[in-house]
Write a structure and sequence with these properties.
Blueprint lengths: L16 H28 L5 H28 L2 E2 L3 E2 L23 H19 L9 H24 L4 H5 L7 H19 L15 H20 L9 H28 L4 H18 L5 H18 L2 H5 L7 H19 L18 H31 L6 H6 L1 H6 L13 H4 L3 H15 L1
Helix pairs in contact: 1-2, 1-3, 1-7, 2-3, 2-4, 3-6, 4-6, 4-13, 6-12, 6-13, 7-8, 7-9, 8-9, 8-10, 9-10, 9-12, 10-12, 12-13
Length: about 450
């Protein structure tokens, strides 16, 4: 997010229809990222967990939206209280905001800023869900989201982006969410999985993605929506900074995808579809905090470094024994840390601010600030998320039964399956087939469901 702007009476901003329309479009693009994430994650799990994975993202749209209106916006962006929280009674219920009231220092209404930030708040807990695939009760997950955004996301958003927030005032650069979104979600994912444990069959059973086309669709939609996520975070389109961020988003994502594939070919001998999708997401994550501070050449470096680091990191779960089902830690935590710290090396001082990184004559000052932001958010989210998961696990329980996990969480938690293999609706020829053919189809169905 851009730093606050102090204006004089003579140059008080007025509502800009162009910027308002631009930001509403960006908000819609960011909203699309949550269903896109659902497709991305949904394709990566086994058939029997597909619907649950989709629902774990979709439910965030419902829960976080209501909480944001009731008190979330006030906690995150209200008047500063001790550098750690915000609070403004006018923002509670969004009831005291004028229709044309502008966000301070900008040319867009408060309502537009609130809805744009809402979409960030929705996406962040949905990111966590990928680490918990196959084994978490849906009711417990919904309650975890409620508690987590209240005590982790809303305060951290204020630290990073709220006027008076301690990381904001320190000068930590996070253009669109490297700390508040990706490190926050990645650290939370690690905290929860350390509490709830591994899936049945981890390291023993093949747990391959059931639909790589679905993964690619989700990755492509994430890439598309990310332009709103990143370019929109300048809150306007008047000075070209958003355009630089748009370009850097494309450049870094491309570089990360190629770097991941290159590493994969050297390490494993193949260019995989899953690697291409994961590499693209790693680049999107890494450029999110840094894209407003670096040049396009710097964006290539950020993307390439993040692509290799994240590709290396996804294998750590097998070495250390933590079951990060869909590599949330490996991609979002590691990518967010990389992108945030690389600001301290590649910031040019000529885009969003005059802060320069080490390679542009700025010394280690900005790198130090970035490190404080990274490790403060990481430690807080990891610790609090683990505590929340522990409390829920000891009270209502976090995990489904072992039988439900083995037979399929979709059926156990949602009484549905993602795909109908029964042959119903297959056409007249199928319906009139002989009993022998029907018996064969039934046998195949059992094998697929298994």
């Amino acid at each position: 997010m851009p730093p606050g702007i102090t204006t004089l009476a003579a140059d008080t901003p007025t509502l800009s229809a162009a910027n308002t329309g631009f930001m509403l479009i960006c908000s819609a693009l960011v909203m699309l990222m949550t269903p896109a994430l659902a497709f991305f994650y949904g394709g990566m799990v086994r058939v029997k967990s597909t619907l649950n994975m989709l629902m774990m993202s979709f439910i965030s749209l419902g829960i976080v939206t209501i909480l944001w209106v009731l008190y979330g916006f006030s906690l995150a962006f209200g008047s500063d209280v001790g550098s750690f929280l915000g609070w403004s009674p006018d923002y509670v219920g969004l009831s005291g905001i004028g229709v044309t009231q502008l966000w301070d220092g900008y040319t867009i209404p408060v309502y537009v800023f609130a809805v744009f930030q809402l979409m960030f708040a929705v996406l962040t807990p949905a990111l966590i869900s990928g680490a918990l695939a196959d084994r978490v009760k849906f009711t417990s997950w919904a309650l975890f989201i409620t508690l987590w955004v209240t005590v982790v996301y809303f305060p951290v958003a204020h630290w990073v982006w709220g006027a008076g927030g301690w990381l904001y005032e320190m000068g930590v650069i996070d253009f669109a969410g490297g700390t508040a979104v990706h490190i926050n979600a990645g650290a939370a994912a690690l905290g929860v999985i350390l509490v709830i444990g591994k899936r049945v069959g981890f390291k023993k059973d093949p747990m391959r993605p059931h639909s790589l086309p679905l993964v690619m669709l989700g990755a492509g939609l994430l890439w598309f929506g990310w332009f709103g996520f990143n370019a929109g975070s300048w809150l306007g389109n008047d000075d070209g900074v958003g355009a630089v961020m748009f370009v850097n988003t494309q450049v870094a994502t491309a570089a990360a995808m190629l770097a991941w594939l290159g590493y994969e070919k050297l390490r494993h001998g193949s260019f995989t579809t899953l690697g291409a999708a994961s590499g693209a997401v790693a680049g999107l994550v890494a450029i999110t905090p840094s894209g407003g501070a670096v040049s396009p050449l710097g964006a290539i470096a950020v993307g390439a470094i993040a692509g290799v680091l994240c590709a290396m990191a996804v294998g750590l779960k097998y070495r250390f024994g933590y079951d990060d089902s869909l590599d949330v830690v490996g991609v979002h935590l590691v990518g967010g840390v990389a992108g945030s710290l690389l600001v301290g090396l590649f910031a040019t001082g000529g885009v969003q601010s005059d802060a320069k990184g080490l390679f542009y004559g700025g010394g280690l000052d900005q790198l130090g600030k970035q490190a404080v932001g990274v490790f403060a958010v990481l430690a807080y989210s990891l610790a609090v998320s683990a505590v929340l998961a522990f409390l829920l696990d000891r009270t209502i329980g976090m995990r489904v039964t072992e039988d439900d996990e083995i037979s399929g969480i979709d059926q156990g938690e949602h009484a549905e399956t993602a795909y109908d293999f029964s042959g119903a609706g297959g056409g007249a020829a199928l319906r009139t087939a002989g009993s022998a053919q029907g018996s064969t189809a039934a046998a195949r169905t059992k094998k697929v469901d298994a």
